[in-house]
Amino acid sequence: MMLHSRFAVPNGAGWDLDVRHYFDPTRRDPRLPPVVMIPGYCMNSFILDYHPAGESLIGHLAAQGFEVWAGNLRGQGDSKRRRGRRSYGFADLALVDVPEVLRFVGRHNHSERDGVALVGCSLGATIAYTYLAHFHDDHGVELLVNFGGPLRWNRVHPLVYLLSRRPSLIGMVPVRGTRHLMRQAVPWAQRFPWLVSFYLNPDIVDLSHADELVKTIDDPSRRLNFEIARWIKNKELVVQGLNVCHSLYSITAPLLCIVAGQDGIVTPEAALSILDSIGSADTEVIEVGTDDIPHAHADLFLADGAHEHVYQPLARWLRSRSL
Known about the structure:
By secondary structure, the chain is an alpha/beta fold. It has one domain (3-320): Alpha/Beta hydrolase fold, catalytic domain (Rossmann fold, 3-Layer(aba) Sandwich), CATH 3.40.50. The protein is built from 11 helices and 11 strands. Helix 2 (90-108) packs across helix 3 (123-134). Mean pLDDT is 89; it is low at 167-173.
């Protein structure tokens, strides 16, 4: 039986962050580090606690004895702006919000461990890297997991490349009602799977529950859009004058990279670029998908085989590095 609590955590910059806590009191193992999950671009933690065909990623980890925390940063989930700027970028997310989430988890978790297992999902991994690059002497991260998140854009999908050519133009486009647009797009994806093949494979994801699936979609920030486009164009991410790619050599936490072999949002080359930058001597890669059963970006969380190919290997890796 998994228990679920929600907290509004002030970030000191006018936002109350939506932080969620999950654990199974009959299975929780205090010897394991708390797992802190950071959602990615235009997404929130719903995708981590939902699967159209059964047990979710968070549900699986809780059943394996882990205490799981999902940190919705500003603009994600039910995080609320009380004052200050609506727009935000990498520095706000990685250098303000993530530290507040980790401090809150540090005060309220029930683990015997001092550090956490930090799981970055898609852009959430990039945000985690940025946090580590700026807080490399006192980051509190024991284990690091990258779910298809880029660091350096060694190879870019043509569509993503085109969108990045004019960062200033991308940053000017107001984006509202993204969830509604995605709900309208699901029937088209079912009729014409190639339209979304760069993001997910409709043959292995049940799209019949559109009203549920779109709950994970949030509106993006224009400033973040601009910074992402500039980053893709320049290949390397610079936040507050610090090149994140060049600033991770002192990070020695064990690293697990989980990548989708046919990902059209974040190519495997971009997701695995972290291996060239991090100082860890303990790294492992799990690549999901084959030519016969291709896996794209969202399939890591939603595919029919995610339990076998993603959830279970992740739990085994976390436990093997913890006990």
